[in-house]
Amino acid sequence: MAVIQDVHGHTHDHPTGIMRWLTTTNHKDIGTLYLCFSLAMLFVGGFLAMGIRAELFMPGIQILEPEVFNSFTTLHGLIMVFGAVMPAWVGFANWQIPLMIGAPDMAFARLNNWSFWLLPIAALLLITSFFVPGGAAAGGWTFYPPLSTQGGMGTDMMLFAVHVFGMSSIMGSINIITTILNMRAPGMTLMKMPMFVWSWLITAYLLVLVMPVLAGAVTMVLTDRNFGTSFFNAAGGGDPVMFQHIFWFFGHPEVYIMILPAFGVVSEVITTFSRKPLFGYTSMVYAIAAIALLSCFVWAHHMFTVGMPVTGQLFFMYATMLIAVPTGVKVFNWTATMWRGSLTFETPMLFSIGFIVLFVIGGFSGVVCAIVPIDVQVQDTYYVIAHFHYVLVSGALFALFSGAYYWLPKWTGHMYNETLGKWHFWLSMIFFNVAFFVQHFLGLAGMPRRIPDYALQFADFNMISSIGAFGFGLTQLLFVYIVVKCVRGGEKAKDKTWEGAHTLEWTHLPSPAPYHSFETPPVVK
Amino acid sequence: MKGSKLMALLSNFVVLGSYSGLAISSKYNLPEPQTPIAQEIYDQHIMALWICLVIFIGVFGVMGYSIVKHRKSVGYKAANFHHSTIVELIWTVIPVLILIAISWPATKTIIAMKDTSEADITIKATGYQWMWGYDYIQGEGEGISFYSQLATSQDQIRNQAPKGENYLLEVDNRVVVPTGKKIRVLMTANDVIHAWWVPALGVKQDAIPGFIRDAWFKVEKPGIYRGQCAELCGKEHGFMPVVVEVMEQEKYSRWVVERQKAASAAVVNTALVKNGASKN
């Protein structure tokens, strides 16, 4: 560690090689680590998805035995949620929050290092669980007991991994909250913060609120499995439904944890490429806050078929539908931001527009799922699979791509290849819809989720969906190629790469951003 | 080939709405509803789709216009407006009104779904890893009890025999019920959580070990209605279908008599065997 006073960032006695990365406390290094880790996990989770779609390509059991298939769906979900999407957003937070609020680094630099290095441990636990006796957890990413009390050692490894992921998230969020609240440049009041920072501030509060709840659920399942307790075992006086309430009290805010930072990125990108201020900044902030607040009161909409009193179903239906209002406000505001702007369509803008269009489709199917009678038909079917992939893949993942293309020039100092970027967008857009749009039909026609084999009337759409999924998976290799090429070299990026950019990292810092930035805070007017 | 399939898919989606009320069987939509509840669900889904479509066209019509006209490449200069309280208020209030319009019929359906009182016949469905057990516990047929397992052969699943028409959706013993009677189903489970689901009847209810839940249906049209377990329950989750056969009243009464005869014969047989065993 740099014990010597590091004046203006000129004295560098950092360790080099692997030790640089193991011991780093620099927000940019840690951000890079997070982003590389999550990209690797995207491909691990993607590999599992390819396995699932290969098995479902045709009726009959061909590639994966039913138990292995269940492990694939379980680990696909867990790895994508905890390994890919969440760390990717923390990576963006690490890189961008200090740059956007004019702070020299994150508030707790060592904690930052630790919260990252927990992740590979958790990921290792998950991945190696495939090779232990009994195989990986196969009870779904939601690990409902009593099914999750049945699995072998792989299930314990999975539960422990979730614990470790949770710890990492809590530490990361505390760091983010402290940084945003205490380290803003003079003059940057809360209501002058960029939308991305706002979205992360609220997300971090959600994380701190619900992650401990998940930890509680995980702990109870662990003790039920290993120490003879009966929290969720009816025969011992417990209640399996209680698990679902606790899990979804975490699980529903969790989906907003994955999507709120996406709203932030899209707000930045749309504004920049429309060359116009964000429409309704104040209502955007309130909308995010309202979504976050409401998200804590709707968890039982995942449980409409579990059985609950009429009043319970009505309350959770109304509350869920209400979320459509602030979400609608965001979409209308983005549209109004583009209206009479001076639009250009570089790759980040394309991904953001793609995000809005497809996220709205996911939002619509969300409202459909919120209507209890309809949910009785579509719950636990491919309709739900289609719904949450529209909000998580073409939602969170598209926004991540948008943000990556947007900030890559600032991070690397080089321009990415625009032509290839556009190819990446269009191929992703087409294959994504081929893969997931038909799943709406599958769900309506009655195909349950999490089955390795299906009745013959579902064969056509499954084949189409698999073809789309393979195409989508392959397309993402293009992204890796573009990023590696951009890191290695390329056209020199201007300090203010994008004409319409207005946040501090573009107006006050060179490209690439130096290892230490904003040691003297800028003054925001 | 793939192109024509996609076209067929698209055109079907476009004409989907015109089937509202007609409710023909389609692989693009919910199955043909057989109960009043399933019909209400079907109609509400179509209504929701139309509302979504209108909003989608509205929003992306505006955005599309902007994308075509307000581009820098055609020399469009950016305006500088950034908020309008009135406009923002309008697009907050209108969605609220739309949501109220959607939730009103839904609320009535929920209340109707939950009313399991005054059933003519009550059947208990128990989920096992991996089959269903049925006990007729009240009404005509009381005392009948059997297990219902997947009837599709392993050879078909393993691709060693051609797959039959009802591949994975056929069982050895169907649940049999009469037409025009209110059937209440009690759901529970023996080991892990399962879910009893028959799409055409508009019933899906989790079966939870240690707890009893219920649902009801009433079918006018005789027929065989197929569904599946809808809650992940382990490795054979995809292989425990639910098949309900709805018969006319007289036919049902005959089925009950046959079943009960077979059951009492079985009881006599067991008794004889036991007797024989104790004598030896």
Give an overview in words.
Chain A has 525 residues and is mainly alpha-helical. Chain A has a single domain (27-507), classed as Cytochrome c oxidase-like, subunit I domain (Cytochrome C Oxidase, Chain A, Up-down Bundle), CATH 1.20.210. Chain A has helices spanning 18-23, 27-55, 66-101, 109-128, 147-150, 153-182, 195-226, 240-274, 281-295, 310-322, 324-338, 347-370, 372-378, 382-412, 418-445, 459-488, 504-507. In chain A, helix 12 (347-370) packs parallel to helix 15 (418-445) and helix 14 packs antiparallel against helix 15. The longest helix of chain A is centred in the first third of the chain and has 36 residues, at 66-101. In chain A, 61% of the residues are buried. Chain B is an alpha+beta fold and 280 residues long. Chain B folds into two domains: 2-114, Helix Hairpins; 121-271, Immunoglobulin-like (Sandwich). Chain B is 40% helix and 21% strand. Chain B is built from five helices and ten strands; from the N terminus they run H-H-H-E-E-E-H-E-E-E-E-E-E-E-H. Chain B has helices at 2-15, 36-69, 85-114, 154-157, 249-279; strands spanning 121-128, 131-138, 145-148, 175-178, 183-189, 194-198, 203-207, 213-217, 223-228, 241-247. Chain B has a five-stranded mixed sheet with strand order 3-2-1-5-8, with no helix packed on it. In chain B, strands 4-10-9 form a three-stranded mixed sheet. In chain B, strands 6-7 form a two-stranded antiparallel ribbon. In chain B, helix 2 runs antiparallel to helix 3. Chain B is elongated and about 100 Å long. At the A-B interface, helix 3, helix 8, helix 9, helix 10 and helix 11 of A face helix 1, helix 2, helix 3 and strand 7 of B.
